[in-house]
Amino acid sequence: MKSSDSLIVTGFQFIRNACGEAFRLARHPRQALRSLYGVSLYRNAVYLMAGTLVTSVSGLVFWIIAARFYPVEAVGVASAVIASLGLLALFSELGLGVGLIRFLPGAGKNGNDMMNTCFTLSGLASVAIALVFLAGLHLWSPALLVVRQHPIFLAAFVVFVAATTLQGLVSNVFLAKLNTRFVFIKSIVLGVLRVALLPVLAVFFMGAFGIFASQGLAVTIAVLVAALWFLPKVQQGYRPIPKVDRKALNEVSRYAAGNYVGRLLWQVPPFVLPLVVLNALGAEMNAYFYIAWTIAIALRVIPSSVFNSLFAEGSNDEASIRTNTAKSLKLTFLLLLPLTIVIWIIADKLLLLFGEAYAENAALLLRVVTLAVIPWGVNYLYVSVERIRKNTRGIVTLTAAATCLSLGLSYILMLKMGLVGAGIGYAAGQSIVAVAVAIVLWRRYRSRAEAENKEG
To answer: Does the predicted model carry a pTM greater than 0.70?
Structure first.
């Protein structure tokens, strides 16, 4: 049998086994859930999924309220400003979050210095990068010049970039310590706060700042709660003190540098695409795009949570990679495929929550970008495995290919087809790379199996 035929057969077998697992879970849910919770890989993945689910649901409620209380133009501008927070936080993180997951489990008594070093460097970088971004707004995003028109808006932007950066690092610490329960709790705090703040601030600010401030204040408060209360519970003797320890920095810097490039390339599209749509198609079209994009992105909680848990488990025990990879794939497809089908069917009805205009303009886009989550998940699996193997070159190669193809095709098709073109281009770019990844992983699996048979 040819390797391509064998790969297809194995894929169908895998899906059949996943369906069997789903049937057993449905027949005996309590027993199945108890057994899943007893496995560290599944337990941490579930907490990550639950935390992201809370964030996503609160995000949907947040944007529903925003769409009802604020003009469409304000939603469009605010969504782009909030996307900018995430983009700048991505640059400011410096790859140190991945370094924490990989090296904190073995840091021992030096763990506190490693954490504070990463927090300090990323915090300083976030302030510097935010100021550079604001200074050059007229060059890379003239539509966001509104941020510089008021001192409070400008100052809040810098503070919120720093808070968003530290939020990601704090979550990575919980993951590295295999205690993601606190990620879930932090997500609840953030979700409740931003939904509660939005209608309150609408009384005082009817422009984009009210939406933006609700998000930023919620993130800032959640980070403070996590740093002062939760972190000492997972890292003995920890105190958040600004510090740069050269020994701790040397341990993670080389590994962090390679992953920094890969992570930038990997996560740039979700932040860049709203800015591209805003400047190419206008604020109204970006409002439709961002809502559909936000719903589809919520599905990524499944592969990202499972494969991040795989990365943490592999960092604590490298011998478990092969077994845990199979478990991760099974759980991912068990949960992802049914939800993808449901969203495809009810896309237009789901968007009615935001108004008829959103359903009319973004239903097809939502269906397309929802399908794109499947190849995105395949690619993320490869990134997680290579992080454990410390293969930064492979990570950079994959992320560069996926990002260039996704953004390039999205921009080209958007100009020709409008909003749906952006979704088709993104899905096509991710799918092309996912096919190559599946072939590489399959060949690696086959070669290892043959080697084991020869040794046996």
So the answer is: yes
